[in-house]
Write a structure and sequence with these properties.
The complex is a heterodimer of chains A (117) and B (115). With 117 residues, chain A is mainly β. Helix content of chain A is 0%, strand content 53%. Chain B is 0% helix and 51% strand. In chain B, the strands form three sheets. In chain B, strands 2, 5, 6, 10, 11 and 12 form a six-stranded mixed sheet that branches. A four-stranded antiparallel sheet of chain B has the order 3-9-8-7, with no helix packed on it. In chain B, strands 1-4 form a two-stranded antiparallel ribbon. In chain B, a hairpin with a 2-residue loop joins strand 7 and strand 8 (64-69). Classes of the chains: A mainly beta (117), B mainly beta (115). Chain A binds chain B through residues 31, 33, 42-43, 45, 48, 50, 55-56, 89, 91, 93, 95, 97, 100, 103-111, 113, and chain B through 31, 33, 35, 37, 43-47, 50, 52, 91, 93, 95, 97, 100-103, 105, 107-108.
Chain lengths: 117, 115
């Protein structure tokens, strides 16, 4: 079974450039999450979607960050313009909301490691 | 307010021994779920085990078990018969049923298994 697929796996770019990270959730999952992981701040939730609708974007650092989910099988996280402090591993995760029954665990992609020079 | 606390930044265990990774949580909700994830050096996040707040028995998955003490608000992960491949970061997380999709993650514990 295909898991959460992220691309690119690695991205090196220069400050000021636009960066687009892509995610394909597990088929049938109705919630999608974008996390950022750094040594200093750990795992931070940036935004999550439920049924393709953004529900909570309070974790998005600033206006340079934007995320879209045009359909149930695709999401993007865009940083424009990028800055060195954006360097991190960005994870996409999806889950099937199950109500109160069952774990409904998050399934993570392998992450996109972003380096902004 | 921090909802998940992992107080052990790093732990060492001898191969074949058991190890307990601590996790405490903070919530006044009655319905919630607790999760443990493993992150090896390769970077992926792997789901290990889940405990629901209403589950009366401690969850077990192979060599993993969750020592759930509700009154103490602790959900410690026990790994039995440690293997070299268990060396990784381990994250505890909580999801409140009423808030649906919000997962709260701890800061993680780095486990090193010594041969």
């Amino acid at each position: 079974d295909a898991g959460v697929i992220q691309s690119p796996r690695h991205e090196v770019t220069e400050m000021g450039q636009e960066v687009t990270l892509r995610c394909k959730p597990i088929s049938g999952h109705n919630s999608l999450f974008w996390y950022r992981q750094t040594m200093m701040r750990g795992l931070e939730l940036l935004i999550y979607f439920n049924n393709n609708v953004p529900i909570d974007d309070s974790g998005m650092p600033e206006d340079r960050f934007s995320a879209k989910m045009p359909n149930a099988s695709f999401s993007t996280l865009k940083i424009q313009p990028s800055e060195p402090r954006d360097s991190a591993v960005y994870f996409c995760a999806s889950r099937l909301t199950t109500g109160w029954k069952g774990p409904g665990e998050l399934f993570f992609g392998e992450g996109s490691r972003l380096t902004v020079l | 307010a921090q909802k998940i606390t992992q107080t052990q930044p790093g732990m060492f265990v001898q191969e074949k021994e058991a190890v307990t990774l601590d996790c405490t949580y903070d919530t006044s909700d009655q319905s919630y779920g607790l999760f443990w994830y493993k992150q090896p050096s390769s970077g992926e996040m792997i789901f290990l085990i889940y405990q629901g707040s209403y589950d009366e028995q401690n969850a077990t998955e192979g060599r993993y078990s969750l020592n759930f003490q509700k009154a103490r608000k602790s959900a410690n992960l026990v790994i039995s018969a440690s293997q070299l491949g268990d060396s990784a970061m381990y994250f505890c997380a909580m999801r409140l049923t009423n808030t649906g999709n919000q997962f709260y993650f701890g800061t993680g514990t780095s486990l090193t298994v010594i041969p």
